[in-house]
Each structure stands twice: as C-alpha cells, then as structure tokens.
C-alpha cells in the first residue's frame, strides 16, 4: 500500500481513562500485529497517533475499548487488517507523480517491449501499492497510447493492488475531483476522462478503455501472492520507505522472482535499494533492472 504514517490529525488522542485509552499491553500487541502484517514499525512516539486514529474504528464497530479491538484482531485478523491499515496510514498519490518514470516508459521501454512481443507475447506491469488508482490509470494512459501509436495487438495488462479497502474502492470507482487532475495534460484529460454531470458534477471519470487495461485487486505485500508473473515492470513507489531493512530485503527478492530477466523495478524518489539486494542494478533515477545471469 502506498501509504505513510502521518503525525497530524490527532483528534481523539487525549481520550479518557479506561477502555478508551490505549494501554501498554494493547499498544504492544498492535505494534507487533502491524509490523507482522503490514511491515510498518510503530514506535512509542506513535502511540497517541494510533490511539486517536483507532478511536474511529472502535466507534464504527461499536466496541467499548481497545481491549475489545485487540480481541477482534486476535480472533479474526484478516477481517479487520485492511481497515486497520487504512486507519493508521494516509494514502499519498497523484497522477504522473515522478514523471521521469513515465518518460522512460514512453520513450524507451514500451516501444521495445511491444516490438519484442508482437508475435504473441504478453506485457504485464504491476502497480504494487496502487492507493486510490492514480498510478495504475496513469500507466494505463501511456500504455494505451503506445498500443494505439504502434497498432500493436499485444496482450497488455496492468495489475493494481493495495491493502486498504477504502483505497481500492476509490480506485475501482475511477472518479476523481477535477482539482486532482493537475498532473495530466489537457490532451490526456480530453482523451482519457469523461466529465461528470448531475450528481457527478465537478468530477472526472476514467475512460472505459483504461478500465479494460487495469485489474484492481486486494493484496498484502507481506502475505502470499497468488499471481505467478512474470512482470515486465513493477512499480512500488513510496511504500518500502516505511519498512525496516529485513522486510525490504525480503520484498525485493520476491519482486526479483516475479520479474522477467531484465525486468524493471521502480521505487519512490526517497527510496533506495543500496546495500539491500544483489538481484538488481541501478539504471536510472530510482529505476532498477533485474540482473541477467
């Protein structure tokens, strides 16, 4: 999930005593649970933030205290994992964020892949931590344009995954406020979005052609992965910065196992693979290529 733990918005942090206060044992359990299932480290300095954020979940579930919430996680962890991840994190994304990645796709990678695969190959890109969908739909735009430009009939698809139920719902809806369209050129707005009317006034809806190219699915990066690959490229941007070193190392090796030989891994602008994996070589700004034996 492309998310970050934020320190603003601590409403509810000064909860009263008793069940509405996050005690030592409950916080210790939550910290361990979030680390094991989400890879995020929650230090003691995050306790008030976590308390304030999770009070909303307690109210939504009609629970009487954090001990009840902890018991829910103990007995049925999968049912609440996505909501927990959403509660303690904030999805940060935009269309065509880190434009140099898309430039590389448009100018070099997509033309090469489409030529190499023109006789029956498959082209697969994975947006790992797709958040509310801006990244996979931006990828779909450049992919659709490349397919149109070349007249290619290559079987091309984009897999978009995230842990957050709210983020996935927004991605599937594919409807965005007009003010969120700042990273998109006017030509692409006209080509790939439909302006909402009536109840959808002030919104833009992604074109059906983009929806055809994108498959949106729930996935926890730390759990088992049902897909077999191989992928030509994986976008995992602004995700691993919140993981510790062992979690990053395991994740990078799993990515390497799903990438084509010479496939590409794209990280966020503040992320690096330095000293974490021998399976990749740096070939551009936060762009890594799987090493060929």
UniProtKB/TrEMBL annotation:
Its EC number is 2.1.1.80. S-adenosyl-L-methionine binds at residues 91, 93, 97, 135, 162, 220-221, 237-238. This is Chemotaxis protein methyltransferase. Keywords: Methyltransferase, S-adenosyl-L-methionine, Transferase. It catalyses: L-glutamyl-[protein] + S-adenosyl-L-methionine = [protein]-L-glutamate 5-O-methyl ester + S-adenosyl-L-homocysteine. It comes from Dyella psychrodurans. InterPro entries: Bact_Chemotaxis_MeTrfase (IPR050903), Chemotaxis_MeTrfase_CheR (IPR026024), CheR_C (IPR022642), CheR_MeTrfase (IPR000780), CheR_N (IPR022641), CheR_N_sf (IPR036804), SAM-dependent_MTases_sf (IPR029063). PROSITE patterns: CHER. Methylation of the membrane-bound methyl-accepting chemotaxis proteins (MCP) to form gamma-glutamyl methyl ester residues in MCP. It comes from the Bacteria. One of its GO terms (biological process) is methylation. SMART domains: MeTrc. GO terms for molecular function: protein-glutamate O-methyltransferase activity. It is an enzyme of class 2 (transferase). Residues 21-293 form the CheR-type methyltransferase domain.
